[in-house]
Amino acid sequence: MKWLRRCAAAFRFLTILPLPGSFGATEEDLAGSPLFFPVVGLVLGLIAGACAWVLWRLVPPPVAAVLLTFILFSFSGALHLDGLADSADGLFSARSRERILVIMRDSRIGAMGVIALVMVLALKISALSVLSRDEAVRAALLIPISGRCAIVVMMALLPYVRPEGGLGTLFYSRNVKPAALGGLLLLFVAGFLVMGLPGLLVAGAAMAAVAFFALFCRLKIGGATGDTLGAACELAEAFMVLALAALAGGLF
């Protein structure tokens, strides 16, 4: 029952999927939920894959790409896009570490946040639009897994840096490293099963982007915040789609 509550907590936090009552809503459940973040990605990937199969049959690929991108960020209520915007505003502000953390907590969006949102969404849409129906289905299956895997990988690589605490402190526990290892295993196995060896390459591209972003965050603020975890999710998804588009174009 404990594992089921933690799984429910992961779905409550990462998605807008309705769950009955208050099952999985305690702080203890949330603290153990990172183990199930990649599982959330797998479930969302199955839903997104079905949506992609339908969309690429009904409308032209550019329109289908816009609709699929909307579906993907709607799963989380745009939670991770919000983190991306806040991270961009802070990390590219050329301010001190303390000031960066203050900027990232500000609910108002700045110029860098808008630019980051436009760039990432445009990259996803344009890359998805060049894929065939079968390629789009495979992409939709893998994209959510890579994003949720990125969150736990970032947590395993970086300490939480807000001294006053925050929502992110709930998720930093002894479960983080097993969650990251399990997430990586799920991502690479799923990539291989769906695409063969090229699936390992696109999964590696997504996680390489997360590793570079983690290094950047360590240099700028010394660790991670809830916003940078959301940004890592979006960046992993964007780089996976980019790698898939490059693969479709015959780059490798």
TrEMBL record:
Molecular function GO terms recorded: adenosylcobinamide-GDP ribazoletransferase activity; cobalamin 5'-phosphate synthase activity
Transmembrane segment boundaries:
34-56, 63-81, 109-127, 139-161, 184-217, 229-251
> In which pathway is this protein known to take part?
Cofactor biosynthesis; adenosylcobalamin biosynthesis; adenosylcobalamin from cob(II)yrinate a,c-diamide: step 7/7
Q: What is its EC number?
A: 2.7.8.26
Q: Which GO terms describe its biological process?
A: cobalamin biosynthetic process
User: In the UniProt record, does the keyword Cell membrane occur?
Assistant: yes
GO cellular component, as recorded: plasma membrane
Q: Which keywords does this chain's UniProt record carry?
A: Cell membrane, Cobalamin biosynthesis, Magnesium, Membrane, Transferase, Transmembrane, Transmembrane helix
Reactions accelerated catalytically = alpha-ribazole 5'-phosphate + adenosylcob(III)inamide-GDP = adenosylcob(III)alamin 5'-phosphate + GMP + H(+); alpha-ribazole + adenosylcob(III)inamide-GDP = adenosylcob(III)alamin + GMP + H(+)
Its placement in the membrane is given as: Multi-pass membrane protein
Top enzyme class of this protein?
transferase
Task: Tell where it localizes.
Answer: Cell membrane
- What cofactors does the UniProt entry give for this protein? Mg(2+)
Show the HAMAP family listed in the entry. CobS (MF_00719)
Xref: PANTHER family: ADENOSYLCOBINAMIDE-GDP RIBAZOLETRANSFERASE
* Family membership: Belongs to the CobS family.
Q: What does the function comment of this entry state? A: Joins adenosylcobinamide-GDP and alpha-ribazole to generate adenosylcobalamin (Ado-cobalamin). Also synthesizes adenosylcobalamin 5'-phosphate from adenosylcobinamide-GDP and alpha-ribazole 5'-phosphate.
Q: What is this protein called?
A: Adenosylcobinamide-GDP ribazoletransferase
Organism, scientific name = hydrothermal vent metagenome
